[in-house]
Amino acid sequence: MNLFRILADVCHTASKCILIWAIHWNSSAEGVSLLTQILYVIVFCSRYLDLFWVPPTHSWWNFLLKNFYIWTSWYIIYIMLRVFARTREREKAWKLGAYALGGSIAATIPVGLIFEGTAVLHFTEFLWVFSIILESVCVLPQLLLLRQTTVPTVIDSGYLIALGSYRFLYILNWIFRLFTPKKPELIPVLFGIVQTALYLDFAWVYWTRQRVKLRGGGVVDSDDLRKGFLVHRALDHTGGRASVEDPEAQDAVDDGAQPKPPNANRWGARGVSITADDTLDQHHSKKSNSNTNGSPSESSGMFDDEGEDDFLNDHDDDAPALGGTGNKVLNSDAEWRDDDGTK
After folding, report:
1. Which domain holds residue 93?
2. Does residue 334 form part of some domain?
3. Is there a domain that residue 297 lies in?
4. Beta-sheet strands, E only, within the chain
5. Do the domain assignments include residue 333?
6. What does each of the 343 residues of the chain score in pLDDT, given as a tens digit?
7. Does residue 207 form part of some domain?
8. What is the CA radius of gyration of the chain?
């Protein structure tokens, strides 16, 4: 234990508290990835099995924090599923979460044999190495959801600062331990650096794209990842093309003019939807009803309860665009319309 380790644990604990508070304060879990939270539960339950045989008196600090991380992660999943509305994640996100989980399992033994030797073949050591690897990529579904969410989310700057500080302070803790008899282990250091890099890029994309554009209540560009480095290369498959949710704004961009500022968002405090997907059809309906061309409502037949999942799944796949324009991916509402505003 040293000062950096203690501060890191405090920041990690604060990030959990801030997220729970934000969900309750907004009465919504809009923009919070259920998949990321599920992966965190798997991480903590795999890593902290020693709670069953290590007495609390050995370290009350570790005992309390380990229990806190496990039960708060379960609580977040509970309120996301049973209490407050959330954005339903698309098929691509579920595939990404499955790849993160399966890849971590597959990499555990090779990584363990390289850095730990045959000790990784023991059940508890295997789970420990697995949890370290999985934690480094847990944030990927959250990154993808933030990229796809075009409305304000409950994730705020305080949560990102606490989460990023937790990883940064742990790096300082490892540097400090280099000068002590108890050297840091290589596996947590290597994958901790990977995790910290993803968090930093996550924060950079959030501040430069999501929060800045939402201060005026506007709708964000869902695929604009050009300001990010790691996230841009890992998740952006549109060739760097930013999507524009407003068709008139898209026409203005195509003509080389400045797009019109979006209408103010009237979704309540901070513009966060308190009913998540249930209000998306209303939001699109308002936009389409204000169209002077009299185009049909965006929500009719597209965002109903039975057809929404099919539409979202189709939106994720690399389906060819309408009109025979090749293999262009449909990334925004504007690309579903012809020039005259009809579907």
Report:
1. 3-213
2. no
3. no
4. 28-29, 85-86
5. no
6. 889 999 999 999 999 999 999 999 989 998 899 999 999 999 999 999 999 999 999 999 999 999 999 999 999 999 999 999 888 888 888 999 999 999 999 999 999 999 989 998 999 999 999 999 999 999 899 888 877 766 677 888 788 889 888 988 999 999 999 999 888 999 999 999 998 888 887 777 677 655 544 444 444 444 444 545 555 555 555 554 444 344 444 444 444 555 544 444 434 445 565 555 544 445 455 545 555 454 444 433 333 444 444 434 444 444 444 444 444 444 444 444 444 444 4
7. yes
8. 22
